[in-house]
């Protein structure tokens, strides 16, 4: 079933059993991408957590770990508010394009410990999970409010008028899309701060509900990149996405 498939997906990612992943179906698909960026894992271990250096050879115990498979190198491009490419040296940018998956990601601002929901890009803002569309909410709409503090409010703010950067199709990423940002060579946060500044080492919502327990939704903890799921009533951070290959 879908729940078992998603669990298997995370197990395979943790063990490094694949490099490229096929698109998931249904609500988990988003704008499907066929290539998975390299995870950044470079160290091999045994089942007790001891480092194996060098990594095992074919036929040896613990051969075939993530560190022994190189996926497509991570490649990002900074974009201005009109979606134009910027130089790598740019000191200010509005969005980032993942050149492997084709996804375009919102860049967060003003990480100062102060919540400011008048600015949907504020890195400190936390939101409850809310999706009132029964076709995409997995059977539970989550916790929606009238105080601009749920994920549907967040997306409405981004997509109002002519939209953020001229686009009105910003959305929450699926769990697959959100996991693609995790760089396991980094910690606290497990993401490139060169392109994604102001990222908190904390939980970020995905759009994917838990199939077995629909009042839960999946999120990524960018402290170490784990994929987890908790009640939709929790206040977590968000990062919007659009597009894809």
- What is the string of helix and strand elements? HEEEEEHHEEEE
Let me know the average pLDDT: 86
Helix fraction? 10-25%
The main β sheet shows up as: 4 strands, antiparallel
Low-pLDDT regions: 1-30
Biggest sheet, spatial arrangement of strands: 3-4-5-9
Label the overall shape.
globular
Class of secondary structure makeup: alpha+beta
Count of individual helical segments? 3
Portion in beta strands = 15-25%
Oligomer: single chain
The count of β-strands is: 9
Rg calculated over all Cα atoms: 18 Å
Cα-to-Cα separation, first versus last residue: 26 Å
Give a quick summary of the entry.
With 245 residues, the chain is an alpha+beta fold. Helix content is 11%, strand content 16%.
Task: Describe this entry's structure for a reader.
The chain has helices at 2-15, 151-159, 175-179, and strands at residues 44-45, 51-52, 76-79, 95-98, 103-106, 203-209, 216-221, 226-231, 241-243. The protein is of the alpha+beta class and 245 residues long. The model is unreliable at 1-30 (pLDDT under 50). The strands form three sheets. The chain has a four-stranded antiparallel sheet, with no helix packed on it. Strands 6-7-8 form a three-stranded antiparallel sheet. It has three helices and nine strands; from the N terminus they run αβββββααββββ. The longest helix has 14 residues, at 2-15.
